[in-house]
Specification:
The chain contains 19 helices and 29 strands. It is α/β, with parallel strands linked by helices. The protein folds into 3 domains: 285 residues, 4-Layer Sandwich (Purple Acid Phosphatase, chain A, domain 2); 224 residues, Alpha-Beta Complex (5'-nucleotidase,  domain 2); 170 residues, no CATH class. The strands form 9 sheets. It has a 6-stranded mixed beta sheet with strand order 6-3-2-1-13-14, with helices on one face. Strands 19-16-24-18-25 form a 5-stranded mixed beta sheet. The chain has a 4-stranded mixed beta sheet with strand order 8-9-11-12, with no helix packed on it. The termini are far apart.
Length: 714
C-alpha cells in the first residue's frame, strides 16, 4: 500500500511540473536572481518547488544564485533520521551556492550530526564532513567494551555543492574538523560577483549543548565587505546586523522564501515575489525517497525540552518532568502486577536526560539521542519514606551530579549551601551518612512521612544500584518481594513515546514549556529572623539596625549575654578584633607580635594580624594600648588602611574645610578622615547646630557599629 501511495504522489508531482512559456525566454538577460530560503527546519518539500523556480529563472536567461539563511539541518523526521545528511544531499541536488550556519545548525552536540551512543560515534558524519565529503569508514557498531562487537561501514560521501558561511565565528585549530564554514564566499556570475556573509550567534540559544562550542569565538563586529564583490548579501540568523546591499533576516524563526533581481550593469536591486506552485520531478522523486526511508514520527513538540547536563545534573528540567511523568503514568496504567496500593513516585536520573528534544517532529532517533542510557527495562520498588529520603539525598550529593533525581509525584527541596555528609565510598560517589541537604515536602500532594510506604518506579539501571542509588540495590536484594520487574522489553524512552501518543495526544505542548516546580534548590542560607538578645538596645534606637547588622554577621559580641552597652567606649583592641572577624579570622600564628603590651589574650591574634597587614602601627613603636578607647580619627585611619590593603578604598576625598574643627585632625589622619567623609562613613556630629568631626573624641560601641555597617555595606 505504501508503494502505491508513493507512486500516485510521484505521478501527481509530474503532472504539476512547470513548463516555461516560450515568450518568457530572455526576460532576465543581463540580470542575476538571488533566490533564498531560510528556517526550513527539515521541510524538504520546499526543495522540489524551489528547484522549479530556479529552473524557470534560468530558462529566462537569468544568472541564479541560491542561498539559505540557516536552520536547515533538523526539525522533521526526514532531517532527523539522518541527522541532516538527507537535507544536505537534497540541497546539493537543487544546486545551492551558499548556506548560512543557523543557530539550530549548531545544536548537535560535539558538532556531530548524531549522538555518540555507546561508541557509535562513527556511524554519523560531522557537519564538516557533510560539506567537505568523507571517506568510507568501517567502525565498531556496538560499544567498544562489548564482548561481541558488530562491525559496520559508513559509506563515502562526496562534497556538497554549497559553501557553509559564518562570518562572525572563529574556530580554534583543535575544533576545526567539527564544523566547516568560511568567513564569506563570493559567487561569480556573468558580469557580477555576489559576496555572501552570514551573521549567526549560536550563543543566544539557551538550548545549546554543554561545552560543544568550546574553542569557538563569537564576535559582534560586522564583517567586512568580501573582497572583489559587487553586491553584498547578508544572511542574518541571530546576532549583529551588518551593512549590506541585501539583508535576508531569518532571526524571527519562521520559514522564508523569496527572490531579489539584480541588474548586472546598474547594480539596481528589485525584490520579487515568487510562487511555489510547481515542482521539479527529479527533486520530488528524491524527496519521496527520503520520506520513505524516514523513521516513524512519534509526535511533535511545541517547546524545546532541556537536555543540557548543567541543568539536569543540578536541578529540575522540563525534559526530566516529561520523562518522570511518563514513568509514573506507566506504573499506574500499564505495569502488570502492580497493586497500586500506595502512592507512586517516578525517579529519572538526570544523567539519562542527556540531550535536547527540539520543537518540531519527534522520532525514535530523537528519543534515543535525548534518553540514550536505557539499556534495561523499568521496575517498581517499595520503599519507606526514610529510605526514599536517603536515596534522594545521595542523588544530589554534589554540584554536577548525574544521579540527580528528576521526579514525578513528589516535591523536594535541596539546601545546596549545606555540605553533603559523605559516608562510605560508593564507586565514584558516596553513601549518605546523614540526610542533611534534602527535605521532601510532599508526595502526591499529601504530607510526606518517613514511616509511610511508597512505590518508586525507575529504570532498572538505578534499581541495580548504579550512579548513587545504593539504597535501591540494598532494599531490592534484602527484600525481593517488594520489587517488581517488567523485564527488559519496555525501556524508558519507549514509555516516553507511549506517553506522548496516548496521554498528550501526540503533542508536547505548553505544559512542559518550563520546569513545573517540583524541585527547589536553595543556594544561599536564608537569613533567620533577628531576635534581639540585648535588653539595652531598643528597636527605636538610632543604632538598632547597626547593632543587628554586627550581631548577625558575627562582628561584635555583647558585653554579656543580654547587654550590648551601646554608650560604652570602644577600645582599640575591640575595633581591630571586629575587622579580624570580618576578614574570616586568618591564621595569625606566624605573625610576629611587635607590641610589648599585647600579651596572650583574646585580642592577640587580631592585633598581630593587623600589624602584619599594616592596618595598625601602635601608639608607639612597641606599644599598642589595646584597652585604651579608640578615637574617631584612629577609627577612620584603621578602616582606611584596611580598605586600602583590600584594594577597595578608592580615590574619593572630601574637602574638610567646611568643618569648624578640621584643623584639629592629626596629620596622620587627614587623608583617612577625608576619605571617610567622602564615603559617608563619618557624617559629623551636631554641636550648636553645626557639624563637627570631633577627631579626638572617643567612639562608643553604638557609633562603631554604625560606622562598620556603613563601611562594610558600601
Amino acid at each position: 500500500m505504501k508503494k502505491v501511495l508513493t507512486m500516485l504522489l510521484a505521478l501527481t508531482l509530474l503532472l504539476a511540473v512547470f513548463v516555461p512559456a516560450a515568450s518568457a525566454a530572455g526576460d532576465y538577460a543581463g540580470k542575476t536572481v538571488l533566490l533564498y530560503t531560510g528556517n526550513l527546519r527539515g521541510d524538504i518539500d520546499v526543495y522540489a518547488r524551489i528547484a522549479a523556480v530556479k529552473a524557470e529563472y534560468e530558462a529566462k536567461d537569468a544568472n541564479v544564485v541560491l542561498v539559505d539563511a540557516g536552520n536547515y539541518m533538523q526539525g522533521s523526521a526526514c532531517a532527523n533520521a539522518t541527522r541532516g545528511k538527507a537535507v544536505t544531499d537534497l540541497m546539493t541536488m537543487v544546486g545551492y551556492d551558499v548556506a548560512a550556519m543557523g543557530k539550530y545548525d549548531f545544536v548537535y552536540g560535539d558538532a556531530t550530526t548524531g549522538y555518540i551512543y555507546h561508541g557509535n560515534y562513527y556511524k554519523y558524519y560531522t557537519q564538516a564532513e557533510l560539506v567537505n565529503g568523507a571517506e568510507e569508514l568501517t567502525y565498531r557498531q556496538n560499544a567498544p567494551w562489548a564482548s561481541e562487537a558488530v562491525m559496520a561501514t559508513r559509506p563515502e560521501i562526496t562534497p556538497a555543492s554549497f559553501y557553509a558561511v559564518s562570518s562572525n565565528l572563529t574556530v580554534s585549530v583543535e575544533n576545526s574538523g567539527y564544523y566547516s564554514f568560511d568567513p564569506y564566499f563570493v559567487v561569480p556570475v556573468t558580469d557580477l560577483n555576489v559576496g555572501v556573509v552570514a551573521i549567526t550567534d549560536p550563543t543566544t540559544a539557551d538550548f545549546l549543548q554543554d561545552g560543544f562550542l568550546d574553542g569557538y569565538t563569537f564576535t559582534e563586529e560586522a564583517p567586512e565587505k568580501p573582497y572583489g564583490s559587487d553586491i553584498v548579501v547578508a544572511l542574518v540568523n541571530g546576532g549583529t546586523a551588518c551593512e549590506a546591499d541585501i539583508v535576508i533576516d531569518a532571526t524571527a524563526g519562521t520559514p522564508i522564501v523569496g527572490a531579489y533581481v539584480i541588474d548586472n550593469e546598474t547594480k539596481a536591486i528589485t525584490e520579487e515575489e515568487i510562487k511555489l506552485d510547481l515542482v521539479d520531478p527529479t527533486i520530488a522523486a528524491a524527496v519521496e525517497a527520503v520520506k520513505a526511508e524516514a523513521v516513524t514520527v512519534i509526535g511533535k513538540s511545541e517547546v524545546t525540552l532541556d537536555g543540557s547536563d548543567r541543568s539536569n545534573w543540578n536541578g529540575e528540567t522540563n525534559l526530566g518532568d516529561l520523562t518522570a511523568d511518563a514513568l509514573k503514568w506507566y506504573a499506574e496504567n500499564k505495569f502488570e502486577g502492580f497493586a497500586k496500593d500506595v502512592p507512586v513516585i517516578a525517579i529519572q536520573n538526570g544523567g539519562n536526560c542527556d540531550n535536547y528534544l527540539y520543537d518540531g517532529e519527534i522520532t525514535d532517533v530523537d528519543l534515543l539521542r535525548a534518553l540514550p542510557f536505557s539499556p534495561m527495562g523499568v521496575g517498581i520498588l517499595y520503599l519507606t519514606g526514610e529510605q526514599l529520603l536517603e536515596a534522594v539525598e545521595a542523588s544530589t550529593q554534589s554540584e554536577n551530579c548525574p544521579a540527580w533525581a528528576q521526579v514525578s509525584g513528589m516535591e523536594y527541596t535541596v539546601d545546596a549551601y549545606k555540605e553533603f555528609k559523605a559516608g562510605a565510598e560508593y564507586g565514584d560517589y558516596y553513601e549518605a551518612e546523614t540526610v542533611n541537604r534534602v527535605t521532601i515536602t510532599s508526595v502526591g500532594g499529601e504530607e510526606f512521612s518517613k514511616e509511610a510506604t511508597y512505590a518508586v518506579i525507575a529504570d532498572n539501571f538505578l534499581m541495580n544500584g548504579n550512579d548513587t542509588y545504593y539504597v535501591f540495590k540494598n532494599v531490592k536484594e534484602a527484600e525481593g518481594a517488594k520489587y517488581l520487574n517488567n523485564g527488559n522489553g519496555v525501556k524508558t524512552r519507549d514509555i516516553v513515546a507511549m506517553y506522548i501518543k496516548e496521554v498528550l495526544g501526540g503533542t508536547v505542548g505548553g505544559t512542559y514549556a518550563e520546569p513545573q516546580g517540583r524541585i527547589t534548590v536553595v543556594t544561599e542560607e536564608p537569613e533567620l529572623p533577628f531576635v534581639n538578645p540585648y535588653t539595652d538596645v531598643a528597636e527605636t534606637a538610632w543604632y538598632y539596625d547597626a547593632v543587628k547588622y554586627t550581631y548577625q554577621n558575627g562582628l561584635m559580641d555583647g558585653t554579656s549575654k543580654d547587654k550590648f552597652e551601646p554608650e560604652t567606649q570602644m577600645t582599640r583592641a575591640m575595633l581591630v578584633t571586629v575587622l579580624y572577624r570580618a576578614e574570616g579570622k586568618p591564621e595569625a600564628s606566624e605573625f610576629e607580635n611587635p607590641f610589648q603590651d599585647v600579651d596572650d589574650n583574646w585580642y592577640t591574634d587580631a592585633i598581630c594580624w593587623a600589624a602584619e597587614k599594616d592596618i595598625v602601627n601602635g601608639v608607639a613603636p612597641d606599644k599598642f594600648a589595646p584597652n585604651e578607647p579608640v578615637t574617631r580619627e584612629q577609627m577612620v585611619t584603621i578602616l582606611h588602611r584596611y580598605a586600602t590593603g583590600k584594594g577597595t578604598a578608592g580615590d574619593g576625598k572630601a574637602d574638610l574645610s567646611s568643618f569648624p574643627d578640621a584643623k584639629q585632625v592629626s596629620s596622620y589622619a587627614q587623608d583617612a578622615m577625608a576619605w571617610a567623609v567622602a564615603g559617608n562613613i563619618i557624617q559629623g556630629s551636631k554641636v550648636g547646630g553645626e557639624d563637627y568631626l570631633l577627631p579626638a573624641d572617643t567612639a562608643t560601641r553604638a557609633q562603631i557599629a554604625t560606622v562598620l555597617m556603613r563601611f562594610l555595606e558600601a
